[in-house]
Amino acid sequence: MQYVKIKDVIVEQIESGMLTPRQKLPAERKLAESFDTTRVTLREALSSLEAEGRIYREDRRGWFISPAPLRYDPTQTLNFTNMALSQNRKPKTELVAAKGMLATKEATKLLELQPFSDVYRVDRVRYLEDRPVVYVTNYIRPELFPNLLDYDLSKSLTDIYREHFGVVYQKIRYRVSTTSLLGETAQALRATSGSPAMVVERVNYNQNGDLIDCDIEYWRHDAISIESIAQLDR
């Protein structure tokens, strides 16, 4: 099939270094002409490369070569900034919104709350090398963190909890799934609606075993690699 041949050529150019991370591919029309093919066939090749995490698409900007994914180890308690810096990446966090509200159905379930409980909701977008890669929503129990909304929430919540409230993470429960980026989440990540995404859902407990917050992370699927080493007891 012709789209497989086109895909193989692009993969070879990526692996040889002819195409470099974050490099923009030519417009689809020009690419189709260079491969002497139709745009329909070209899009099959590009969609296949996107599914494999080789390239990513930004809405109204085109296709780009994917950098190496961030290695995400669920057994480590490194915050996003330190995780990125430890891998020689350039992180940035942008606060989208922060407010007090009644807990959603999802937050009520994850935090094991009574109906109509209050929570803080914090929405942020995180970047690697100026590319938005993850949209994060935190739901936080306000009775444990009074006046939390007064702090600079573009900074690490882990650090704010520890430095200002004496709270540290002791246990974290993870769930990883896949979805598609839609609506405001897709827009914030400069993704086209329907782009594949990885969802990392975390429920966090403090040093006393109390549920303190949860977060739902919507990652551009090519930007993250879940990796861990399990130490087995014998």
From TrEMBL:
Keywords: DNA-binding, Transcription, Transcription regulation. Residues 1-68 form the HTH gntR-type domain. It holds the Pfam family UTRA. The keyword Heme does not apply. GO terms for biological process: negative regulation of DNA-templated transcription. GO terms for molecular function: DNA binding; DNA-binding transcription factor activity. SMART domains: HTH_GNTR, UTRA. The keyword Nucleotidyltransferase does not apply. NCBIfam families: phnR (TIGR03337). PANTHER family: MANNOSYL-D-GLYCERATE TRANSPORT/METABOLISM SYSTEM REPRESSOR MNGR-RELATED, TRANSCRIPTIONAL REGULATOR OF 2-AMINOETHYLPHOSPHONATE DEGRADATION OPERONS-RELATED. This is Phosphonate utilization transcriptional regulator PhnR. It comes from Vibrio lentus. The lineage of its organism: Bacteria, Pseudomonadati, Pseudomonadota, Gammaproteobacteria, Vibrionales.
